[in-house]
Design a protein that fits this description.
By secondary structure, the protein is mainly beta. It contains no helices and 22 strands. The strands form six sheets. A four-stranded antiparallel sheet has the order 4-5-6-7, with no helix packed on it. Strands 8-9-10-11 form a four-stranded antiparallel sheet, with no helix packed on it. It is globular and about 45 Å long.
Length: 243
């Protein structure tokens, strides 16, 4: 689990007993807010955040900084298909969205070619080595966006989504065809979008009324999903949805 202390210093917590106890792991000096983590194996993990990508190959005993391309401002999400192939998403210091990729375990991170107009990218999911979906915001926060690649990131294209979506924050894909994306609409109401045809069509799912925003989603099976968010009838509280 990743985040930050009240002092603004980045933190990584770990458990090996199913969450009964959590312990702090040592991160490099100067690490700021950490927003995302992915562990493609028991020993290998990558964490991303403010101008940083951290990696461990010994289960978190040691974390080290990886070299980030110049101009990166904040990274909010990371996904690893293998211990060597990973994607990190976020934005430049200018606010323009960015997708970074590595195929050598983080020795080199390269910038992917994405459609212009992407403001920031907040989440990514890859059901296999070639297919990935990323979500974020376009045009100065004026609308949500879903990007997709079918060739391992060589080309990314924008997909059509329902009108009125202002931001998409999280995404999970069970297969190359079935994905769920979450965020909020122009009315400030949380939304869950779904596709069963690889993103050719995305549709709104029915959710309980009164939800302000949905931030993340995970699906352990084809029929069971859990989504997290905040606000219920404008009351500032956390919430968990299930299907």
């Amino acid at each position: 689990a990743v985040g930050e202390y009240t002092s603004g210093v980045g933190v990584i917590l770990a458990t090996s007993d199913g969450g009964i106890t959590w312990s702090n792991q040592t991160v490099p000096i100067g690490t700021g807010l950490l927003s995302g983590i992915a562990c493609p194996s028991l020993l290998t993990c990558y964490a991303v955040g403010s101008v940083s990508i951290l990696a461990t190959s010994d289960g978190g005993t040691t974390w080290s900084n990886q070299t980030v391309p110049t101009g990166i401002g904040n990274l909010s999400g990371v996904f690893c298909s293998t211990v060597s192939i990973c994607y990190a998403v976020g934005e430049y210091t200018s606010g323009v969205g960015v997708i970074l990729a590595t195929s050598d375990g983080g020795e080199y991170w390269t910038v992917e070619n994405i459609p212009s107009g992407t403001r920031t990218i907040r989440g990514i999911s890859c059901p296999n080595l070639l297919n990935c979906y990323a979500v974020g915001v376009i045009n100065n926060n004026s609308g949500g966006e879903i990007l997709a690649t079918t060739d391992g990131g060589v080309y990314w294209t924008s997909q059509n989504i329902p009108s009125g979506i202002t931001a998409l924050i999280g995404i999970t894909c069970l297969t190359t065809s079935t994905c769920y994306a979450v965020g909020e609409n122009a009315s400030g109401v949380g939304v869950i979008l779904a596709t069963s045809d690889g993103g050719t069509t995305w549709s709104n799912q029915m959710t309980p009324s009164g939800i302000d925003v949905v931030n993340g989603i995970a699906c352990p099976s084809a029929l069971t999903c859990y989504a997290v968010g905040q606000g219920f009838f404008n009351i500032p509280t956390g919430l968990i949805l299930s299907s």
